[in-house]
Amino acid sequence: MYGKSPTRAVRFLLGLQLTALWPIAAVEIYTPRVLEAVNGTDIRLKCTFSSFAPVGDALTVTWNFRPRDGGPEQFVFYYHVDPFKPMSGRFKDRVVWDGNPERYDVSILLWKLQFDDNGTYTCQVKNPPDVDGLIGEIQLSVVQTVRFSEIHFLALAIGSACALMVIIVIMVVLFQHFRKKRRAERAHKVVEIKSKEEEKLNQEKKASVSLEYTD
After folding, report:
1. Share of the chain above pLDDT 90, in %
2. Is this prediction's pTM over 0.70?
């Protein structure tokens, strides 16, 4: 009788500890939060997760969509062992699976973006026994042209600087080339002038010698 009480007490305490620790082991979702894409293009809606439990056949992934201008939530995609595309609705034939659960990646591809695709895309992952956790969200903006971000400006500045450096190097090389060419032409002219002067002197000497001989 006395030997069983401590065992029950230990089990009770362990149960309390596991219950207290279990919410910490919820599924965590990671998304880019905000995306911008051009109308008519394709985009990858990236969603990755972390889970305390190993990934198995019980894993389920649900993608939904909430329009920016309001309205009911719409089904986008579902995954459970195999991907399940929508058979009707706005996303029919426009969504494909692009994830790898073994790498904790449950992303999808959305084709041929339209302006009415603006809104919030939600990514929910359940990996039993980890079924709790926040739902990942992506705010998608479909625009006519992509606005320049700081990264774009930085890339443009770096590209312009590189192009300017290349132009400067080419100009320096061309300048040195023409400078050497001019020097060579001047040297050639000097040689021609000297040779003509020497030839003239030789002719004058010959003329003087012939005059002396006639005298």
Report:
1. 48
2. no
